[in-house]
Amino acid sequence: MTNQPVKISNESTSSKTDNFLRAFRAVVVLGILGWLAFFVYSNTVNENAEKPFKLGLDLAGGSHLVYEADTEGIDPIEIPDLMNTLKAVIEKRINVFGVSEPAIYVETSSIVSGEQHQRLVVELPGVTDVSKAVEEIGRTPLLEFKLVDLEALAAQQSISEITGKGKDGEDTKAIVKVATSSLLAMGEPYIDTGLTGRYLESARLEFTGAQSGQVANEPVVSLRFTGEGADLFAKITRENVGQQLAIFLDGEVISSPRINEPITGGTAIISGGFNPQEARDLAQNLNFGALPIPIELINTQTIGASLGQEVLEKGVKAGVVGLGIIILFMLLWYRLPGLIAGVALLSYVVIMLALFQFIPVTLTAAGLAGFIISIGMAVDANILVFERMKEEFLSGKTSRESAREGFRRAWGAIRDSNITSILAAIILFWFGSSLVKGFALVFGIGVLISMISALVITRTLLMALPEVEQDRGKVWRFLFGSGFFK
Amino acid sequence: MFAVHYRKILLTIALVLTVASLAIVAFLGLKPGIDFTGGSLTEVVYNEVPEKSALSEVVEKLGIGEFSIQEAVDETGRNGYLVRTQDLTEAERVLVSQAVTSIGKDGEITRFTTVGPVMGKELRDKALWAVAGVVLIIVLYVAFAFAGIGKPVSSWIYGSITILVLLFDVIVPMALVSILGHTSGIEADILFVMALLAILGLSVNNSIVIFDRVRENLVLNRIEKRTKKMEAGVVREEVEYTITKPFDEIVGESISQTMARSINTSLTVLLALFALYFVGGEVTKVFALTLIAGVIAGTYSAICTASPLLVVYAKWQEKKQAETQTKQ
Predict the structure, then answer these.
(1) Chain mean pLDDT for chain A
(2) What is the β-pairing status of strands A62-69 and A295-303?
């Protein structure tokens, strides 16, 4: 080989140092991959691993609850803050419930659906009886303070009286019509003040003393506001002396005391004819946190634990079988380069698994399916290169020259096809709901990594192979050939 | 090259399949899953499965509105039913679980999903936007990537053909799911949309690889003619390219050269899909099947439709130009 008369380029010198460098690079790449494989393996097997696989609820079993927050009439700037308070309150609740590793997060619906919906997602691994969880969350009280518009209230009351009479056989329709229109003109009798349970610091059961005409020893709940809440409360009471301030619990008026003077101390009392037990429960529930905005359960999903386990096992099995068959196919069709593609494919799988653990990517049934398909797609770049390489090899170039040329010429096609895939993944991630997002993420990362595995790993290993010329015996020619050619 | 030579037959087959699939989807329709319509789905399995009518009777008694019951097998191979209802409140859910587990031996709820109507509509909108967005990006990218290709067919035609081929690749699996929805109650859920999107991606990859080769062969088989022109005191160089081979031959060559790749890549994806279908879980079976249909359609269209369409267009353009010239 050393007395080759014409050298195509400087790179193709096959001096000893170059050969050593090529072999060295290949060993380094293989070494890194081996280490990565070990990392993934130990993380999977070890029970207390720092970075284990994160399984979605459909694989781990459990419940997925989605609550929608009613944000009507709330300043959009305040919404993120409110949602965070909401999250913290629900988190406290769920922790009481004793679920291991619950996930609670706020999800905002995407812009495309017109109105922006604010949602709270509660994921409870291992819990398949959602009724207890739903009940627990449902016990979180919603506390609101609203000013009372007495005129509107009076109008509303009289209407309900009229309509009540109307039922006795009078000309109901006309009356209801008049009543409704007058009600619409008056507007809502209760006006939001912005003071809600989010400003609550603590609640306490107390008994009233025998003073100012109250029943002695009536159980009441005493509230203490946070600094911000105290300021707001002071402002409201200062500006509305003489009016009534209604206290709403879960949408119902508990009491509506008159504001006699500004209250600056940051405390308030709810007295609603409770018995001691009711008052104690309310104080306790308020201490766990009160809802800053009303929420409604709109979506529930429960997957049995054994079911999830089964889906996972079958998915992993399908992945292993798929991987095995594909490697076998590559080996049979592309022979020596096929073997290298097999190694590259294995490294693709290892890198992906390591990324799943590191980022971490929550694996779902859909994500797993996407990953299995991506194994089939990942060899595409290798196939493109090998087919090109074969053409060059058949046209009389040496094996290494044809490999180099193969990579150079296949690049355009690899680039164009992968860029569209990555763009598609980005769009899916942008628009998608959480399920689609997981799939898009796996798909997008998969495309990138498969490109890297083909362009870096396959290339490095292929270049480290000994250079084979056309007249170099049948065995070598066979090894670098493909398909049905000899 | 057979694909170019027999293009009329091959394109007719594709056209017939497309029309048939469109008709199937239009008449049978797709059965949307509850993720899109809103509603509740309860999967109950038993060790000894009760009669469907018995189950139907208990659910009927609850008075929770319309419902449908379908036989199902869970992942562990136990038999049971899928009960579809309107979206249930928490209290209704408890009622339904109690009712359906009370009959049959060892009744167990293995899966329960409820989707509010708002969520369903939102997901539907999102899916539509995602598909539209992906298609748009693909046309733009293909038109952009092949912008320099110029003669004899403009880059927009490459982009448009990519989309036509893509329609074919998507409508065929849609028709399959439509038929299966009719015969065995398979629903088009969010996983189905994801399968379609994956097919979109694969289909475009196939087209791009062949067009990329056409582009390369066009450059290899052309003569450059540079002419210098003086225009208002500035020397302008004009380059004119003449293709030395007939366009259909170039396209034919490109197909032959990329054929092994098209088939092998589809084959490896199919191997993965078959593994998923036969070994993987029940939940992804329909997903795998949709994709298998899409990949097979995609392989056919990549070889037998995409490039032949290019030739058809080029010939049509040639004829039109010839006509206008004779008129002049």
Answers:
(1) 78
(2) antiparallel
The two tokens of residue A138 are: 């449902």
pLDDT at A110: 56
What CATH number should be reported for the domain whose range is B2-33+118-327?
A: 1.20.1640.10
Q: Where exactly does CATH 1.20.1640.10 map onto chain B? A: 2-33+118-327
- A146-155, A231-240, A440-449, A450-459, range with the lowest pLDDT: A146-155
**Domains, in order of start, for chain A:** 17-54+304-480 (1.20.1640.10), 57-140 (3.30.70), 143-288 (3.30.1360.200)
Does the pLDDT value for residue A275 go beyond 70?
Answer: yes
* A329–B279 C-beta distance less than 8 A: no
**Angstrom distance (rounded) from CA B58 to CA B40:** 17
ipTM for the complex?
A: 0.85
Q: Is the peptide bond before B152 cis (omega within 30 degrees of 0)?
A: yes
Which chain A residues are within 8 Å of B197, Cβ to Cβ? Answer: 424, 428
Name the amino acid, one letter, at A202. S
Average pLDDT over residues A75-93: 80
Preferred mutation among A130, A327, A420 to probe B, highest tally of B CBs within 10 A: A420
3-state secondary structure of A119: strand
Establish if B137 touches chain A: CB-CB under 8 angstroms: yes
pLDDT per position as a tens digit, A369-378 = 889 988 888 8
Q: Which residues of chain B register pLDDT less than 50?
A: none
Q: Nearest by CB to B276, which of A117, A298, A369?
A: A369
Write out the E strands in chain B. Answer: 39-46, 67-73, 79-85, 108-115, 222-231, 234-243
What pTM does this model have? 0.79
Give per-residue pLDDT as tens, A205-262: 888 765 555 556 778 888 888 888 888 888 888 888 878 888 777 777 777 777 777 8
Counting beta carbons within 10 angstroms of the beta carbon of residue B320, is it exposed (0 to 12), middle (13 to 18) or buried (19 or more)? exposed
Q: Distance between CA atoms of A442 and B245, rounded to whole angstroms?
A: 44
Closest-CA distance, B48 to chain A, in angstroms, reads: 18
The CATH label, of 1.10.510.10, 3.30.2290.10, 3.30.70.3220, 3.40.50.2300, for the domain at B39-114 is 3.30.70.3220
Report d(CA A222, CA A234) in Å as an integer.
16
**Which residues of chain A does B288 touch, with a Cβ-Cβ cutoff of 8 Å?**
369
Distance from the Cα of A366 to chain B's closest Cα (Å) equals 7
* Chain A residue numbers touching B134 (CB-CB < 8 A): 423-424, 427-428
CB contact under 8 A, B129 and A423: no
* Residues A376-421: tens digit of each pLDDT: 888 888 898 888 888 888 888 888 888 888 899 888 888 887 888 8
From-to residues of CATH 3.30.70.3220 in chain B: 39-114
Reduced to 3 states, what is the DSSP secondary structure of residue B324? Answer: helix
SS3 A296: strand
